[in-house]
Structures are given as C-alpha cells and as structure tokens.
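Retro notes - structure team

What went well: the batch runner handled both jobs without manual restarts.
What didn't: labels got mixed up in the shared folder, which is why I'm recording both outputs here explicitly, each with its sequence directly above its tokens.

Job 1
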Amino acid sequence: MNDNHILYDIAVIGGGINGAGIAADAAGRGLSVFLCEKDDWASHTSSASSKLIHGGLRYLEHKEFRLVREALAEREVLLKKAPHIIHPMRFIMPHQPHLRPAWLIRTGLFFYDHLGKRETLAGSNLVDFQAVNSPLKAEITRGFEYSDCAVDDARLVVLNVMQARELGAKAVTRTRCLGAKRVQLNTLQNIWQIELEKEQGAYQIQAKVLVNAAGPWVAEFIQQDLHLNAPYGIRLIQGSHLIVPKLYDGQKAYILQNDDQRIVFAIPYLNKYTLIGTTDKEYLGDPNRVEITDEEIAYLLDASNDHFKTQLSRKDIISTFSGVRPLCDDESDNPSAVTRDYTLALSQENDGAPLLSVFGGKLTTYRKLAESAMGHVQAFFPEMKKMWTASSVLPGAENFSSAEDLAAQIQDKVSGVSAELAARWVNAYGTRIWKFIQQAASVHELGQDFGHGLYAQEVDYLVECEWAVSAEDILKRRTKLYLEFSADESLQLDQYLQALHQRRAQEDAA
C-alpha cells in the first residue's frame, strides 16, 4: 500500500478526544485531514475518565480561573451538541467542617454559578441531610448541591471522528505512526513525509501540517519518532476508578472530600452501579500498561466508607479501570495541583512544515482546544473557513427532541424492545439509531442475539460505521456492555466478528 502521492493539509496523530476534536474542526473548515490512532479510538486516556463534563470545582483552589470559566461555558455548548450522550447531573458535596469551612465552599460555588454562562443547568443550593432520607452517615448533616454533566467519554470521541469523516477526513485505527520527517516539496515549501504501519503493511502519506495529539506519548513522539526536542515536559498522572454495585438510589452524584484535600466522586453509572474515582498518582511506567494499585483501591474504598452508610470491601468491586492523564509539566510537587489546562506548541522550519503538539487538556474543553489549534495553524491556510463547532451538533443529535420521545418511537416501531434497551440505544446513538434498526419491525428481525440486548444488526453497524474490530471495541467503548457479558459470550462475539471481517476481506479482494 503506497499513498505517497496523497498530500493532506493536516495529519493528526492520536485518536483520543483532542485528536478527534481537531480532526473534526479542521475538516469542517474545508481542510483535507488525515487522522490515525495506533489502537482503537479512545482506547487509552479518553475512555478512562470519570465520565464527566464539568467545570472543575476544585480547580478554583489552584486559581485556574481561565480554565474553569472556559469549562463552565463548555458544559452548555456540549449539552446542545450531544444531548444523547451528555446529561445534566446534580452533585452533592457533604460538608466536612474540619476540611473546608462552609464560607469557602459557598464562595467557590458562587464563582461556579457565575463564572461561565449558565442557561439550562440549575444553580447551587444548601442541603439539609436530616430532612431527607440520606445514604450518608448520620453525623454528616448538611452539604451543598450544584450542577455538572455526565458523558459517555468514549462515544464522545467516536462521534467526533464520525463527524470528521462525514466532512471528508480520512480516519484510520490500528495504524501506528513510525515517524515523520520534513522534506522539500518545491523551492518554496517543505512538507511532512509520514511513515505509517498497519497490519497489511507500511505506507506513507504527506501533509503540510503535522499535529501531535498522542496524549501520554506526546513528548516521546517528538523525541523518538521525529528526532526533535520537545518544548515541554509531560507529567503522567494516574487516575483509577472502581465500579461497585449501586450504593444508593437516585441519579445524583456525590463529591467526597478527603483529609489530603483531594476529592473523590461517587457517580451513578449505567443504572446498576456506582463509579468511584479518581486518584492522582505520579506514573512512571508504560502508558499501555497502567493498572490500579492496591494503594489506590484502599484509598477509594476508604473515601466511600468514610461517607456512606453502605460499607464496601474489596469483594464488592465488580470492575476497575485506570488511565494516565498527560499533563503539561508545571513542576508542581503535588500531582493533584498539576495544571489541567492545555498548552499548544507550534514549531516550524524556515520553509514551513509546521508541527503543532498538544500538551495536557481535559475532556470538557476539547472543543475549545481544537479551536485554539486551528487558530495556531490559520496563517498556513488563509482560505480556511471560520469557527463552526459551537453551533453544530454531533452525529445522533440531528432532529433530537428528547430521549423519552425517541425511546417511545423505537418501542412503537420495533416490537419486543424493552424500555431498558430503548434507553441504551438512545443514549448511545441518538437519531442514528435508525441506521441499524432499518426496516426491522421486531427484535427478532435484528439478527443473531448475543445476549443482553446486543443483536447482529447493531454489531454490523458498529463495524461498518464506527470502526469496531473486536469484542472489546464494542463492549467496552461502544456499548458499555462489558459489565454484563461473560467470557464465553465475549468469545462468541469475537468469533462472529472474525467471520464478518473475513467475509468483508474476501468481498474487497473480489
């Protein structure tokens, strides 16, 4: 495979939220875009988050007012962009007087309510736990309540990549960038020659601008693959989460204060579970192999048990996940205090071939980061269109009225669909659900039943339209059904996928 003749405006390395957002923004401005990811979309940091779109209340303590203001405003923007995968959520902070005085929390919440434009999200208020049936320990008598949002993080990435592709971008997974070098296109311009490798073999592309959105590998990519000096260092901060049986009723999350001044979230998850996290721990190992430690497990269990009546032990843990946040090194001694803001570094030689590297960032501000990235490269593309992403919706949000209305439409059209299944479909696909339901009038017409509401037509759609290759791609990052599937059921799905890929390969060869 040789694509030496293809010259893209922008090549983006890294298929996490930042790379996906930049690719979508660039494609929508009329640029030709290539996006590659060495594994699956969102298979590292971007699927190991706390699943929140939030302003970052605790960042106010570190005086990161610009970041908080931007993140608060983005909550409202993203709610409109993807109402099927992003939902308002109320957060309760139990008051622990020995940790933070009430006046300090009230001041922080005042800023939280007013720093960013708030249109649909409710403001903060006091909560008297003695007046309600509280899941918290009896000695915790009052607290504070405020608004943020929950998100399906991996689907947010996939939807941005889908949007990029629909706007003309070339997007490929399981394609590793082996390196890149500046070469002379003509007497006036240098470009990037980029070496790529996938299972079928190695090939090349060319690009006028190279964007390094490799996340945890951003500095390594510059130093080892480009043989250049990285303008900034990177701090890898490990964050781990526990998934346990539902700790309490209702759809509100809790933000738990700890003696070390950190906070831990307890968040309703997938209707059956509670998600507890995250930790902040310096990580020095291979980002491909990050795993929760015994120390982190104990820390998160202690945080929960210090606050809730229901006491947890290790045997209650259903699943765990860990990731590393690639934060720009600001030389802070405390991992929790390392800035969550992003830094974009642009470098070029005399005759062009710019390199734009992304250091840091967070899920909530990915769209603003992408806009900033386009601002950095605008001088190289004078015909580039204007900013557009703030008022556009992501795939599945087209003609989306409400989750309840769409779920009712699905159940009216397809007999045998439970309320739970309809809700899962709506929260994953929005109005794109009709792409795989097609003409089916009954669940029995959706093909092979793999269990837990997963049918062949959904699987085929995920392979055809969302780059799914393996059972892990589908169960962990596309549907979140991995918590329901047994090892045997997962194996059956993988076998189906292998046969499907073989048939497609034979058809392509013919």
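Job 2
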Amino acid sequence: MAERGRPRSRRAGGRAQSSSPRRPERERTQRDRTRRDGRRARLRRGLSATRASGAAKVLGLSNTRRAAVAAIVVCALAFTVAVPLRTYLTQRSDMTVQEQRQAELEAEVADWERRKAQLEDPAQIEAEARRRLRYVMPGETPYMVQLPEDKPKAAQPAPDQEPEVDGAWYQRLWEGTAGR
C-alpha cells in the first residue's frame, strides 16, 4: 500500500516517527487508549451510519420518513389483528352463554324424562287423578272436609258498616249526592 502514495505510518499527516522528546510511558499509553477507544467508537458509528445511509439510499427515505412508514406498518398490523381478535372474543363469550343454556335445557329434559317415567305407572296416574282432579272410583263416596284455617276469610262488612263501593271518586260522589 505504501507504493500507492500512502505512508504506512499510523500518525496523521503522513509523518514518520519524529525524533521529538519522548513522553512518560504512562501518559502515552493512556492517551493512546483514549485515542483507540475514540477511533473504535467513531468506526462503529461510521459503520452503523453507513448501513443506515445505505438503506436510506436504497429506499430513498430519510429517518423521519422511515419512522412514518414503520408507524403505518405497525398500525396496519394492529388493525389487521384487531378485527379477528374482536370476533374471536365475541364468539367465545357467545359460546359460553350457549353452553350454559344447553346445560339448563339438558337439566330440564332430564326432569321431564323423570316425570314421564313416573306417569307410566298406573298407580301414579290414579293418585294424580284423585289428588288434582278429585276423581273417585265407582262405588266410593267422596267427602270434602274443610277446616276453618283452610277457608279464606271473607271480607264481609260488619252490619253497622256500609260496603265500600268500587269505582272512581267522582262516581262515588255522584252516588252520594244522588242518594243511592
């Protein structure tokens, strides 16, 4: 590489090591380290900048435009996922409601099946007819016993009270003035 006109020296300006007085060893190594670290950092920044600038050159976009495009892509993905997710959650809640309804209907069917099995017995049918319909077999004499607590108390007015007339207040007023 030296043949092409570049000096092989690492020092800037293409100068070779000069015969200047030497610095103390500690000071020189510390400065060299900071220079090397600075160069490495610049080199890293330069590489990432060249990568970014290379992508920007290829796409022809600046950083702001790339951020806007990324935001649009993220929003599009969010909207693309939002509708199916909402549909999934709605269907899932509907499915739990339908499963509860199915369980209730199955319990009701089981009750009706049990009741049907009871009514297949002729003795049960006869007992139901006697109890609910007050049927009697031919030759039997039915008796109805009413206990005082079974009878609803009739709201009969006392002899000194007049019965209340149902109707609107103006009808009662008219009947009171008419003397009925």
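One thing worth noting from job 2: Residues 29-60 form one domain.
We'll revisit the folder naming next retro.
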